[in-house]
User: Fold this.
Amino acid sequence: MATMTASRPISSKADKPRVTVEVPVLRVGAGVSDYEGLNRFVDSLRKPQGLHMTLLHVGILDELAADIVAWTKGLATPGKVLPEISSWLTELPVLQGFLGKSDKLVPLGGGRLMGLEVDVPQEVHDYQALLVQGLHVLFDDLGLDNIDDFILGSPALGYRSPRWLPHIAVGKARSRHEPPVEIAPVALEFGDSRIRHREALVGGDS
Assistant:
């Protein structure tokens, strides 16, 4: 297995956008009251207009490029890597809006957050699998080996499991040991897929 040994310069991540492929949440349940009812299960419920479901976390592009440079032992350079990643993202097909549902809150992020576990149509799973397959092709073109290991090990990607769990983070967990919680089923409506922080891409729109 290849390993990443190059270190990154020390810098603040606060002002560096994390790029994701996501779908916005347009509606939870029958109205605002259905969403606000989740308050009894979580702390600091997120604003409904900011809710989304991540299909692929790409991360901070400079850090992903650094991971790739380290993995290829410098054979891939940032000057090549960043335009290739940006081009791949901008050429992705759009997943059309869809309906889903949820009847469970589950712990996320090592127990720091709580989110709705979402039941989505098969075409959404197919699209997410297409994204991961596309990453394989992209990384192969960039000269990476052991691509599955890279995807699961890259700190920038933050992709820790081969199994994608559709979910919507809704707020902070009340403790680090919150169990899953069954809730009354709620219908969910999602919009078309989009690239969050598209402006961070090389040649991206401002």
